[in-house]
Amino acid sequence: MSELTVEKGTPNMMTFTLPMVAGLGLILGFLTGNVVGSPWIGLLLGTVIGAVLGYVLNTMVPSKATGRWVVIIGFAVIGFLFGGLGGAVGGVIIGAIISWFAYWIGRGAYRDDVPIYATPGQTLWWNFFLFICGAIFIFLITPILVVMPLSFNAEDFFTFTPEMLRLDPEGYSLKHYRDFFETSDWQLALKNSLVIAPIATILSVSLGTLAAIGLSQSHVPGRRAIMAILISPMIVPLIISATGMFFFYSTLGNFLEETVGMSKSLVGYIKVILAHAVLGIPFVIITVTATLVGFDRSLTRAAANMGADPVTTFFRVQMPLILPGVISGGLFAFITSFDEVVVVLFVGSAAQKTLPWQMFIGLREQISPTILAVATILVVISIMLLATVELLRRRSERLRGMSPG
Amino acid sequence: MAETNAGPMLAADGTPLKKSLARALRRQKLRALMLIAPLLIFVLVTFVIPIGDMLLRSVKNDIVADTLPATVEVLGDWDHDAQELPGDDVWTAFYVDMWFAAERKEHTRLGTRLNYELTGVSSLFRKTGRRVDRFDTDIYADQFVALNPEWEAPQTFAAMLDGPAADELPLTADAWARWKEFNVEEGDAVLEEDVPDFVYTALHYELSQGAEVTGASERLRAAAAAVGEFETVSLRDQFADADEDWLDPEVWKTIQLYSPRVTPGYFANAADMQVTPEGLESRPENQQIYGVLFKRTLFMSLVITGSCILLGYPVAWLLANLPMRVANLLMILVLLPFWTSLLVRTSAWKVMLQQQGVVNDVLVWLGLVADDARLTMINNQFGTIVAMTHILLPFMILPMYSVMQTIPPSYLRAAKSLGATNWTAFWRVYFPQSVPGIGAGSILVFILAIGYYITPEIVGGNTGTFISNRIAYHISSSLNWGLAAALGTILLVVVLVLYWAYDRIVGIDNVKLG
To answer: I want to staple A329 with a disulfide (CB 3.0 to 4.6 A). Which of A133, A163, A287, B193 is the partner?
Structure first.
């Protein structure tokens, strides 16, 4: 069947394109004018420039790429003349927005995603809906992005300084990162985090994987009850877990110190590691049991048939196949421990201070933007973790013969 | 063939098949349980028992009975309604108890405990603890010794109170037994220490009350006959001297009320009530903080859940209906906040919302807000709601997305081709199918929100804090652990009910991550 193409046509220049682009120019002009101090002149100029651009781009510059670059560079130059480097960046942004809008409106691209029979009202609603979703995505991601440039602040403030806004190199520095790597408090916290999180992860992954394999057997008495108990650390609010652990672990700690004779700091680490391990267990159980659902049980029987003992079967047949689930469960457990602050605050002592704890203290007392440098490092780490989990997920779907996501 | 048909079916090793199968099943069950056991024990010990311990702590009240054992016993008979002070039996027992408590430095802890119930008791106990071993009770020792010098020797007491006389002089015997125990703790020999004043005081009290000593030693009989002539010192005045609040019957009422080892007091406090001899009573209006706090926690969690639904629904719909490749890219924008440290996100919101923060800067820069009228968006409810909505939004989007993915888009088209308007098609066809996703996400977000601590602590100020902040305050600052445990127990019950609902609606097995 041959594809049926329908010519959508372009909107009317005078009654639609020009007013729309001029309207955007009006808003942008007003805002820019406000920054400079004369909003009404800005408004007027913006409207005129918008109308001119809408007309010129859509009638005289058929190549979209050329048109957009010319506008962007033009605005950048004007911005640079008025406001230096910062102005140039502003110019690039405004130029990009208005040139994209001019083509989008002028060529009828706003109807691309709606059916040909959609009424103008439906088209407007659809684009409004996209705009809302875009705003929500911006809401989700902006706070995380804002932290990054601020961590290079040369001043000890949590805010953008005028130098930073002008993109003046003077306004930026690595001093908060240096601070992070040179202050003993932060280094101790980093070291503690890097000791506690991996050990807790190993503990919860090894126990959790075994139990998940047990749970996936066909005949498990009291499966629901067991599952509920194993998942409970995730359901109970952290503050309650922390309160319960605070009472019980101090008794446990006294016992280990006085009766077994362990050193105070070792006991502290043991307490925090046990607490974090148990918090990570639900994540391991959930991910590994989910992976085991797709596991073909006849493979273990085949291995046994060929003479492999259960241990060999587990490590050579089952483990490689469920490894993606185990690793992503482990990553969840790791991030749980690495991120956790309430329980460690209650259970640990100052010697077990972790990164989140140190950040929490810093935020409460608002001492330095070093927190933002640490935050940036943590965001980079979480991007890497996210990428790993995503790759593992795709791999496991491929292995199970599902379509790659 | 005829042979095998005759008997039951046999397995290869000759046992009946049924039995053999049952054995195999049992073995399989056992193996599964063996695999689960280590983790189950681990979770029980490191998590379930601590939670249970906390639940017990919310009603446990051992400290009064442990610190003041003799007083608690005699105070039980005191009639608190008479508005009279307790009699000499209580004062004497209390003197003995206080002496030990002060020596062991336990009286301050007891004072702190009772101070939760009656303000001022803490300093009362602290002051008295400093004075109690300097009471003027040495005159009793002097008078006993003057009567018979043998009364000075600890051996006399040891011989007397380990014998049958102990039954007649219960308080003295008890004081002596505890004195022995105390010396063992300190590593001293009781027979080399001077007999303490409170033993003489107790002995004097019991003898003057007419203890039956006819069968006892000559010495004791003589003493019993002589105590009537002894110069006495009023313990009540001694205590009143240390702090005259001891003459306030309220103090004794409180001690009596909190003598039992199990108390509803913490729960009553958590519900803005107080335990009185007449039963539970509401606290005065201006002292009711927990009701307000619980209401606020529920209200804010509801608002956060609501705004998560409002923001999450369109995004989940878009993600579920866009082509896979684009949806996966946009999914990163949802997952990145999900994976980013909670403290990073909270600090980011502090940066965004503070008076000199990014949002205010942008508003001022654009001229929408005057520089001297910057908005207050942090350290109040608004800040907490915005930050927590952002933090919990992924937990709403992900379950909604996984439900919406399963709704075939052809249903909507079918509805429209049958003449439904856009709104009808959405409201009557699509929305009902997406409700399970909304339910799952809402309960998840609500459970998480109701127990949040870190974010309200940092951006909540005074008006945006949750019940969890109060729990943390009682754990680390006010040290009223019983109250913290009671508040935690109430919160836990709320969460478990919600969790049960979640299990009924979604099922725990269906929790998906990432």
So the answer is: A287
Question: Confidence class of residue A1 from pLDDT cuts 50, 70 and 90?
Answer: very low
Taken in order of first residue, the domains within chain B and their CATH numbers are 2-57 (no CATH), 67-134+235-263 (no CATH), 138-229 (no CATH), 290-510 (1.10.3720.10)
Note the ipTM here.
0.84
Q: Which residue out of A137, A139, A140 would a mutagenesis test of the B interface target, given it has the greatest number of B Cβ atoms within 10 Å?
A: A140
Pick from A283, A364, A372: CB nearest B458: A364
> Which candidate from A35, A247, A287 shows the least CB-CB separation from B513?
A287
pLDDT tens profile A135-155: 999 999 999 888 888 888 888
Place of tokens 């126990």: A207
Residues of chain B contacting A220 with CB distance shorter than 8 Å: 29, 32-33, 36
Which top CATH class is A183-365?
mainly alpha
Q: What is the pLDDT of residue B37?
A: 93
Q: pLDDT tens digits, residue range B256-297? A: 888 888 888 888 888 888 877 777 888 887 778 898 899 999
Rounded CA-CA distance B211/B169 in Å is 7
**Residue B353 CB partners (closer than 8 Å, separation 6+):** B359, B360, B377, B378, B383, B386, B387, B459
Q: Are B258 and B183 in contact (CB under 8 A)?
A: no
What lies within 8 Å, CB to CB, of B451 at 6+ separation is A236, A237, A238, A239, A240, B466, B468, B491, B495
How much is the average pLDDT of B194-218?
Answer: 81
**Distant-in-sequence, close-in-space partners of B495: CB < 8 Å, separation ≥ 6:** A235, A236, A237, A240, B447, B450, B451
Helix (H) or strand (E) holding B282: strand B279-282
pLDDT band at A5 (very low <50, low <70, confident <90, very high): low
**What three-state secondary structure class fits B16?**
strand
Q: Tell me where in chain A the CATH 1.10.3720.10 domain(s) lie.
A: 183-365
Output phi, psi for B10, to 5 deg: -110, 145
CA-to-CA distance for A145 and A143, rounded, in angstroms? 6
Q: Does A87 touch chain B (CB under 8 A)?
A: no
Based on the number of CB atoms within 10 Å of its own CB, is B77 exposed (0-12), middle (13-18) or buried (19 or more)? exposed
Nearest CA in chain A to B38: A207
